[in-house]
What does this fold into?
Amino acid sequence: MRASEGLWMKIRIKKEACVGHARCAAVAEEIYPLDENGYIAVEEIDVPPGNEGLARRGARACPERIITVEE
It folds into this structure.
């Protein structure tokens, strides 16, 4: 199934490029987990249904643009 059909969404993150602004988590804490130092803790996220808008807003909040939304 394709994300473009609204059936799933995946987030990919260039974790090594995270500088710890934590804006993604400030917008969508339940989508973007941080480690104990305030950096993104994961490289991939399967977005739970119904949270697509929140995931997009969190991705747009990243000043480094290291978060990619696959739809």
